[in-house]
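Supplementary Methods, section 5.1.

A reviewer requested that the exact input to the structure prediction be made available. We therefore reproduce it here, unchanged from the version used in the analyses.
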Amino acid sequence: SSETTSYYLFKKEHQLNPFYLMESTLERFRFVRLLRLGVDNLLVMIWKRQISARYGPFFASQLAGPPPGCGDGSERAGEYGKHIDLAGDYFNRWERNPGAAIEEFNKAIALVPACDNAYVGLANLYMGMTDKEGYPGMDYIVELLETAVRYDPSSTEAYRLLWRLYYRSGKTVAARQMLEKFLYWKPEKIPEQLRVFKYGLPWFDERQAYVDLFIQNLREMIDFARERGAKVALLEYPDGNEFSLLAKDIAREKNVPFVENAPSFKKLKKQPGYLRSDYFIEDNHCTAKGYAVMAKNAAAAVIEKLLK
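The structure derived from this sequence is encoded token-by-token as follows.
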């Protein structure tokens, strides 16, 4: 990896950067890559044991009582399941009806308050609507998920969502705890998260490192493409955030076309039935539908340039 492609390398003051630098430098040698596979397998075992030792007693005490009241076979539990299914149907159909889905989730909660499914379902729905006026923000979503794990300490989906939400909020200690609780129940996912164990979570409140990294990467990518005869255009990210403004400045500096996308997505938000998750996945990258909007804008910009 080059220094312009990794936060761990770019943020020099991070205390574990030297280890990442050494590993990424030596990886060019085949025997080192093979050695790393062995070391990583060992680290997976170590982290798995640490997680088990840290959270095993906690979960054992939390689950010592009666099991979560989701599927006791009663008529009420059956009705609960029907409301959950209906909510999913309203949420996933082609013409979404989030209001009806929310109503069904709330009916499920009223029937069986001590079951995690409806809380997690509501949180998932609201996560797709955080930018829509009139819907709860992240604090309420976190509250829903914390309620889910309070009722069911083995709610893996709640932990998965919680660690990401805490991380986005800059709460890296809480994020690490939720991630490890998720991995306690899903140990097969540990290899995917091993970098967190080896290097820690980057600190979200130190934005300047990300800004510097973004600027340097973008300049080098433009130069790299031009040196190989490619024509370059920069596309604005749909939400028109601070990085979009930086990209616009770099486009002006490098004399490359800049395609605006934020106006198109602002118009979409005003349409009835708009749901953020139709256009964006959880990490804020676009879905196929979102990229189709960007592609249409890019094509229009190319055609306009050709006609000049």
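The longest strand covers residues 234-235. These observations are discussed further in the main text.
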